[in-house]
Amino acid sequence: MIRSKIIGTGAYVPDRVMTNFELESIVETSDKWIQERTGIKERRIALDGIPVSHLAFGAAERALKDAMLDPLDIDMIVLGTVTPDMPMPSTACIVQHKLGAARAAAFDVSAACSGFLYALSIGDQFIRSGMYRRVLVIGADMFSKFVDWSNRDTCVLFSDGAGAMLLEATTSKQESRIVKSTHLFSDGSQGDKLYIPGGGSLNPASHETLYDGLHYVKMRGNELFKIAVKAMVDACHVALEQNNLRVEDIDLVVPHQANIRIMEAIAKKLKIPMEKVMVTIDYYGNSSAATVPTAFDKARRVGKLQEGDTVLAVAFGAGVTWASSVIQW
Ligand code: ACO
Question: Which residues does the entry assign to the active site, renumbered to this chain (predicted)?
């Protein structure tokens, strides 16, 4: 049986740190409110003129270095993003060119904050089917360019970042760095809970769409909160069941970082101690499709992820979409 082995990981966030105190001078908010209601202390924001492909390229380069792999060895690039450089070409193609990965097929996947796990699932299927040997999977987003910086409901939450994983086909029976399973879910009836109405074929960019603020993120945070908790808990149960795992078998949970209270609620419902949950929201905020791969990479670097660990990754985002994956490290 062919399976995907993770041969490299990488993350890249902008250097520019924006603290809650800085936000206090932009909108009517406070460091106390943001920390208490979201868990965020600071976030990374890209400078003007830096596109999301720059972050994705940075993460990919680091994953390639980690795997000691030549870009020409990549067969496919799958990039989860909803904040591409532009509608076309795909950001994956832009990254392919920047990397010099001339042999790779490249395309984007739109699943918002679940984008990385969707991309991972697609990459894993191409490897399992035998079609490709090496797939670069990236989650990258740049919400700083899509939030209304005068709206405190959203501008305090989102951030910019990118994370990547390199998958390689293996037929070995060894359970080391293996993508055991991926599970994808969607419910389009909840699409109005989080969306960007302008700039597509429904509301093409015009003076009116600009004036009406249709290019900014619209979010019903409260309603999303409840849906997100239930969906992610369900996705965790599916992942556990399909791998014949008990909750106690999980060594590390790598969840989407939308709100510390969402993560705490999931941990409580699953009866998993917070010590087993990777948290990066305090210093990185919600970087959408980038949260899971950057948190995974960070867990490796800080020693929170150990050889032999069973990892449960889970995400939720606009669509709405949600997803989970079990990785045997
Ligand atoms: N600073 C101070 N006060 C604020 C701020 C702020 N930044 N934002 C909102 N408030 C106020 C509100 O106006 C409200 O005031 P009121 O009671 O006078 O009306 C009060 O705080 C409470 O507002 P709520 O919306 O009820 O606050 P809540 O505790 O629900 O937190 C939040 C809001 C953080 C958005 C939360 O609902 C949340 O995290 N939701 C989930 C987000 C999510 O999951 N997104 C999906 C993934 S992201 C993706 O896919 C790209």
Answer: 113, 256, 286
